[in-house]
Amino acid sequence: MKTILVIGAGMSSSSLIRYLLENSTIYNWKVRVVDQDIKLAERKINGHPNGIALSFNALESVERRPEIEQASLVISMLPARFHVDVAKDCIDLKTNLITPSYISPEMRALDEAAKKAGIVIMNEIGVDPGIDHMSAMKIIDHISAIGGKVHSFKSFCGGLIAPESDNNPWNYKFTWNPRNVVLAGQGSAACFIEENQYKYIPYSKLFSRIDLMAIPGYGEFEGYANRDSLSYRGIYGLENIPTIFRGTLRRPNYCKAWDAFVQLGLTDDSYKMAHSEELSPRTFINSFLPFKENISIEEKFKKAIGYDEDIYHKFEWLGFFDASKVMGLKNVSPAQLLENILVSKWTLDPSDKDMLVMFHEFVYELNGEKKKLNSYMVNIGEDSVYTSMSNTVGLPAAICAKMILNETLEITGVQMPISAEVYNPILKELEENGITFLEEEFDHQFIG
Amino acid sequence: MKTILVIGAGMSSSSLIRYLLENSTIYNWKVRVVDQDIKLAERKINGHPNGIALSFNALESVERRPEIEQASLVISMLPARFHVDVAKDCIDLKTNLITPSYISPEMRALDEAAKKAGIVIMNEIGVDPGIDHMSAMKIIDHISAIGGKVHSFKSFCGGLIAPESDNNPWNYKFTWNPRNVVLAGQGSAACFIEENQYKYIPYSKLFSRIDLMAIPGYGEFEGYANRDSLSYRGIYGLENIPTIFRGTLRRPNYCKAWDAFVQLGLTDDSYKMAHSEELSPRTFINSFLPFKENISIEEKFKKAIGYDEDIYHKFEWLGFFDASKVMGLKNVSPAQLLENILVSKWTLDPSDKDMLVMFHEFVYELNGEKKKLNSYMVNIGEDSVYTSMSNTVGLPAAICAKMILNETLEITGVQMPISAEVYNPILKELEENGITFLEEEFDHQFIG
After folding, report:
1. d(CA A114, CA A94)
2. CB contacts, 8 Å: A291 with chain B
3. What's the pLDDT at B11?
4. What pLDDT score does B12 carry?
5. Which ranges in chain B are annotated with CATH 3.30.360.10?
6. What is the ipTM of this complex?
7. Which pLDDT belongs to residue B447?
8. When you count CB atoms within 10 A of the terminal residue's CB, does the N or C end of chain A come out lower?
9. Sheet harboring B96-98: ordered strands across?
10. CA distance A213 to chain B (A)
């Protein structure tokens, strides 16, 4: 009997825990799930005989170490900044570790120690990062195997609302951390390369310099640039690629309206607003509009957005011109007030389904010819618990857990899923679970 | 014989040192000037028998303490962050101190210790801060004395190029630290109140939401908001004022073109550009424009600025479309590259004169009537050494030094020049030196 310790039973752990429990009898696993909130852990285990709900403070080394010691594998679903401390305990106690998060420099530095301890620390094995790496590397390795050379790689991913639940003018609801959505793109400019030219998009232009694309059967999408595209060159072995771009997908006309938030200053998290507890959505937005006697807030706002009726409608639907409800949030930033307004309108209903969309576009040279290959995946969630976000984050991690415990994956050190021995079995099993990539190939004459 | 220690002999110390030396014989002063660069100190003293040039590291307490100990007064012209350490030595050694910089919280905390030591630490006694405080408080105290109540206070200041030296399409040259000009307004939004409504202008809107004004004899100016207007309420005793606004002055159409820098992302100092040492002004600006095959950089730029010919001309004049000169700056930010381009074009010629402009607009109620009072000062520099910037920063500090040494000003503690006993004699002597405020009064029917 092998023991798996899952740390964190939040939204993105649902599908992970379900998979582990469903496979626990065949493989003789015990699944111990710890959360500060034991009710949450119990709900995720749902009475399964191989599951044990625990409650302790997993951020405290002394509390988690006895649990790590008796486990064969730890899956940390904690916020990313806590993984390194867990990893150090895992190295100490020679227990394998999986996290869905980006490898931090501190995590990277543990590579040698992990190898010495004979354990694997598998990171970036959710959806983005995770499925993006695996699906891209499969194609990159294939192009390389047939003697081709990748000239351009553009890749987009978005967590969206499924068409059947898409009933608001933004065509968007929150399927992950709202705060991260509000702050997305802030900090230094988005950087990528196009035909060997380094290109930078500052935050103030991020949501107006967008790409449009269509996905067969799912209609149109728009994509804005992620901050970091360049680091993928090294990760994917594409050091000298002339064009590489990573972006985030939204439905058409979302970015234009989000840009209105940015331009007004509503996404700013760098300062607290005076007397913020007294603000209604209406006085909040008016704080960012010029003072004009005898001109209504609606009129000032319309002028600010260049009289775009679609944007106006989207703001109106969010209740921005409503003065009746004071938000009551003391000493908060514009971004926190915006989040409060958005959460009240963009939260999934219990019957809502979400949708995860991934889209890769490769241009490569083969035998002197240019070819284009699109690869895309659209996955619809089951409901508001077993969301597509939860499935696409949790299943790769869960399948990888199985491979480690069954010893069909025998690597050590700080890893990410970019080698065939990792991605092939995982992508195959994801397909069996309905997470499927489709491909379209184009000859060079169709390349714009 | 009394000794004055001036720390720092840079650009803004020229007029200060000259005033002290000119008055040194009458008042029996020795003026000791320290700078890392002894040549600079010697040049400022220019052979005057009462001046002594010194060179040591004034940032080291052990090096400066013997000099502070033998002085009656220290004037610190160091960068603002170093003043507090100097102040602690001055308290220890019971030596008075003058700085032209804003009072930091750490400086504020020394108030009691300074009082106990029986010394004054006079801060914010340059031009902005400095002359702004004095000229505003004189009017505020006057309005209060005649029974009026200030309803609105808007105040602008700008360091500009004198009309006779104004020979570039930006109508601007650097008269103080170029880096500060490039980074101006970054960080949290500009905040002010208008008719009791808190208003915020984010950086991305700062240079497009401008005020226009005319100054008799000097033509038109435009003003953009400073980040902090609110703290002046407490300083000036205007806690419940409905409208308060502080701004920075430029010549018309400057802000619109500066906004193009902001919108492109050229003022960003938060990251380093890849291979920055290879960039020319042309490839630098192209890094922020979309990749378009067969469309020139000029054409892409024109589109980005909405085909504004005036902005295009200003950029062209700065050499932005020049590919011939690689800047050669390794591992630098966009802001550093922009500064490099601007310094090469906006530096004062030896024969150039600068211009300091200050403009206050008061609306106040008196006997049930609304009245408006404008007060403004325009000062032209002597040359590129005794600039208006140097005169307006240095003379208030120098006059205050005289008052402290002659014991006509007898206050202690951490101070700024907002009381009549400080501002009256200083404003009077500034007038004798050609730094003069003119006033225009308007009846209520002319108040827009």
Report:
1. 8
2. 194-195, 197, 199
3. 86
4. 87
5. 131-256+350-443
6. 0.88
7. 53
8. C
9. B51-54, B29-34, B2-7, B73-76, B96-98, B120-122, B413-415
10. 17
Interchain pair A264, B189: CB under 8 A:
no
Q: Which of A189, A199, A287 sits opposite B199 (nearest CB)?
A: A287
| Residue A248 burial (CB count, 10 A) | 20
Cβ separation of B268 and A188 shorter than 8 Å? Answer: yes
Q: Is B135 exposed, middle or buried (0-12, 13-18, 19+ CB in 10 A)?
A: buried
Chain A residues near residue B202 by CB distance under 8 angstroms: 263-265, 268, 288
Positive or negative, the CA dihedral A156, A161, A167, A172 is: negative
Residue B448 has pLDDT above 60, yes or no: no
pLDDT band with cut points at 50, 70 and 90 for residue A447: low
Cα gap A210→A212, rounded to integer Å: 7
Q: Which residues of A touch B293 (CB under 8 A)?
A: 195
Confidence band, pLDDT 50/70/90 cuts, at residue A268: very high
Q: Cα(B84)–Cα(B105) distance, rounded to whole angstroms?
A: 10
* Tens-digit pLDDT profile for residues A91-136: 999 999 999 999 999 999 999 999 999 999 999 999 999 999 999 9
Other C-beta atoms closer than 10 Å to the C-beta of B177 total: 14
Give the integer Cα–Cα distance in Å for B398 and B23.
Answer: 10
- Domain A131-256+350-443 fold is Dihydrodipicolinate Reductase; domain 2 (3.30.360)
Q: Which helix (H) or strand (E) holds A258?
A: helix A254-264
Assign A419 to helix, strand or coil.
Answer: coil
Architecture, CATH, for domain B2-122: 3-Layer(aba) Sandwich (3.40)
Distance of alpha carbon B183 from alpha carbon B173, whole angstroms: 16
Residue ranges matching CATH 3.40.50.720 in chain A: 2-122
pLDDT of residue A444: 63
Residues of chain B contacting residue A262, judged by C-beta atoms under 8 Å apart: 204
- Label residue B402 by pLDDT band (50, 70, 90): very high
- pLDDT value of residue B445: 57
What does DSSP assign to residue B265? Answer: T
- A211/chain B closest Cα distance in angstroms: 11
Interface of B with A in 181-210 (CB under 8 A): 187-189, 191, 194-195, 197-202, 204-205, 209
Structural contact between residues B68 and B90, judged by C-beta atoms closer than 8 angstroms: yes
Mean pLDDT, range A407-431, rounded to an integer:
97
| Closest CA of chain B from A188, distance in Å | 6
Residue range A3-25, pLDDT digits in tens? 999 999 998 899 999 999 999 99
User: What is the SS3 assignment for A30?
Assistant: strand
Query: Which residue type does A160 have?
Result: L
Q: Exposed/middle/buried for A219, CB within 10 Å: 0-12, 13-18, 19+?
A: exposed
Residue A423 tokens read as 């991605």
Amino acid at site A271: Y
Query: Over 60: is that where the pLDDT of B136 sits?
Result: yes
Query: Which distant-in-sequence residues (6+ apart) come within 8 Å of B269 by Cβ?
Result: B182, B183, B186, B333, B334, B335, B336
pLDDT digits (tens, 9 = 90+) for B270-315: 999 999 999 999 999 999 999 998 999 999 999 999 999 999 999 9
For residue A245, give every residue at least 6 positions away whose Cβ sits within 8 Å of its Cβ, in sequence order, or none. Answer: A153, A154, A155, A192, A194, A225, A229
What's phi and psi for A135, nearest 5 deg?
-70, -35
Using a CB-CB distance cutoff of 8 angstroms, which residues of chain B are in contact with residue A195?
A: 291, 293
Between chain A and chain B, the number of residue pairs with CB atoms below 8 A apart is 89
Which letter, b or e, does each residue of B189-216 get, where b requires 16 or more Cβ atoms within 10 Å of its Cβ?
bbbbbbeeebbbbbbbbbbebbbebebe
Chain B residues lying within 8 Å of A199, measured CB to CB: 287-288, 290-291
